[in-house]
Amino acid sequence: MIKGGNLYVNAIYYMVITAFTIGFGDIHPDDMVSKLLTCFFVVLGVHVVNILIILQTYVWTKLKNKYLSTVSEPKRTRVITGLAVVAVFCSIFGGMMGICAFENGENVNRIEDYTMNSTDSFYLSVMSLSTEGFGDISFKTIAGRVFAVIWLVMFHPMYFSAMAYLMNLAVKTIIGIPN
């Protein structure tokens, strides 16, 4: 487990990182009971993320039907594709700006005297959203972890929904299925 920091922030951060199957490796279980609870939480967390994505898809469909019902089909596809691309960019660059602000604002890494540059924050943003989490870089400050909890819960489902839509559209385009 991690030493120092706020116990509650670390616990919530650990739950979100585990539920979204990112696993940076900066916080990990160290005894049998916590390992078993972590396994249970991973299985449960995948379903929680799925519920968030389903809820977001439901809201997205309601909004699409309400505001795009009068728009012709080719134009509707372009609008939805544009919104999906904007959602992906907002997820990545919103995370990048938050990482720079919150990780560098409360520089706890005085031992290394390291501040996160834009490349590192972009890398951490993409690795977090794509659920890679290699463990070479992670959120180290309390403010950064609070930001990670809020940002990942809000943007992770949006990122995955937008990427799924874009991949589906790409496959349809390659195969030649009309939209």
UniProtKB/TrEMBL annotation:
GO terms for molecular function: outward rectifier potassium channel activity; potassium ion leak channel activity. It is found in: Membrane. Keywords: Ion channel, Ion transport, Membrane, Transmembrane, Transmembrane helix, Transport. The chain crosses the membrane at residues 6-24, 36-59, 79-102, 146-167. InterPro entries: 2pore_dom_K_chnl, K_chnl_dom. The keyword Transport applies. The keyword Glycosyltransferase does not apply. GO terms for cellular component: plant-type vacuole membrane; plasma membrane. One of its GO terms (biological process) is stabilization of membrane potential. Residues 8-52, 87-170 form the Potassium channel domain. It is a multi-pass membrane protein. Belongs to the two pore domain potassium channel (TC 1.A.1.7) family. This is Potassium channel domain-containing protein. It comes from Rubus argutus (Southern blackberry). The lineage of its organism: Eukaryota, Viridiplantae, Streptophyta, Embryophyta, Tracheophyta.
